[in-house]
Design a protein that fits this description.
It is an enzyme of class 2 (transferase). The protein is an alpha/beta fold and 322 residues long. The protein has 10 helices and 17 strands.
Length: 322
């Protein structure tokens, strides 16, 4: 089982303390409902990872942990096998004692695109909604955040995060909580809230924006990254059953529409700081994620279109204040 006791102790002393009124019961229910053979196997993999404290830890330029004395060949093979048992790895990469976890997404590229534009994270308490393996949580700590909290209800992602945390010396500055944002009380407590790759999976994008706003303190900053389309104000794509083979895609706004949604929800100082088409170098199959990836989701005769005939994925980063 995953022990959240350290997180409870940390937030009991800060502005997140009101969360303790609901969170322990939620997580107890989540753990009871999540027990199955796969979850037990993933927990077993974490338990068998060695307790290692890195001699060199770089979270500013990457997520890299090293020992001055290299691990033995046997230990390297054992750790690689245990991490592979937690596949598929969607978000990364991680460099752990010369083991390179080459995830499907080059999440470091997204981080490089947005960090020049966001407010300083030094000493901040930050929330990452839909954090996946928690890659960006470690980069937020590298950028100076005091506490980085990721939320995502998927048990595999929690296990991937806990495996990485163990190999980083059981670092307690970042925590993964397996809940959805709709399950959180209105904390109004985070300095910065990130929502990256989540909005288009929401049946009601405006509800999602209000939920993000409810987590920010009075002067907090939102960093939102989402799929967008070329188009005018009030235009948005509502795909059919699938978009780029994803089933649960509801609304993909134009950039003016996204700005309008943010304005309607009361956000201020809204800026678009990056627009990027997703490339086959940024999202691809690897040894750590062998199922279909972007190349399989695009029209083989025209990579400007998805297999369904929609415009190929393009993403934009929006920054706004509460």
């Amino acid at each position: 089982m995953i022990d959240f006791g350290n997180f409870y102790q940390i937030i009991a002393k800060n502005q997140l303390a009101p969360w303790l009124e609901t969170l322990p019961a939620q997580l107890s229910t989540w753990q009871k409902n999540t027990i199955d053979n796969r979850f037990n196997q993933w927990i077993n993999s974490i338990d068998h990872l060695p307790n290692i404290t890195p001699d060199v830890l770089d979270l500013l330029h990457s997520v890299t942990a090293k020992k001055h004395q290299p691990l033995s060949e046997g230990e390297t093979k054992r750790i690689t096998h245990l991490l592979m048992s937690l596949s598929p790895w969607r978000k990364g990469p991680f460099s752990l004692y010369d083991i390179f976890v080459d995830a499907e997404w080059r999440s470091d590229w997204k981080w490089q695109r947005l960090t020049p534009h966001i407010g300083s994270l030094e000493g901040k308490t930050v929330l990452d909604v839909g954090c996946n393996s928690g890659y960006h949580l470690w980069r937020m700590i590298g950028a100076g955040a005091k506490l980085a909290v990721g939320i995502d209800p998927m048990p595999l992602f929690l296990c991937q995060f806990e495996a990485i945390r163990k190999l980083l010396g059981n670092d307690q500055r970042a925590h993964f909580i397996p809940v959805g944002i709709e399950d959180m009380p209105k904390l109004n407590a985070f300095d910065t809230v990130f929502s990256m790759g989540v909005l288009y999976h929401r049946r009601s994008p405006l509800d999602h924006l209000y939920q993000l706003k409810d987590q920010l303190n009075h002067s907090g900053q939102l960093i939102l990254e989402t799929l967008v389309i070329d188009g005018e104000e009030h235009q948005a794509l509502m795909p059919g059953e699938r978009y780029a083979q994803m089933r649960n895609v509801y609304f993909i706004p134009s950039i003016p529409t996204m700005v309008n949604w943010l304005t309607k929800c009361g956000f201020k100082n809204i800026t678009v700081v990056d627009i990027s088409k997703t490339t086959l170098e940024e999202q691809r199959k690897t040894d750590w994620m062998t199922s279909d990836s972007l190349i399989d989701f695009l029209d083989p005769n025209d990579h400007n279109k998805t297999v369904e005939g929609y415009s190929a994925p393009m993403r934009a980063v929006f920054i706004a204040n509460k």
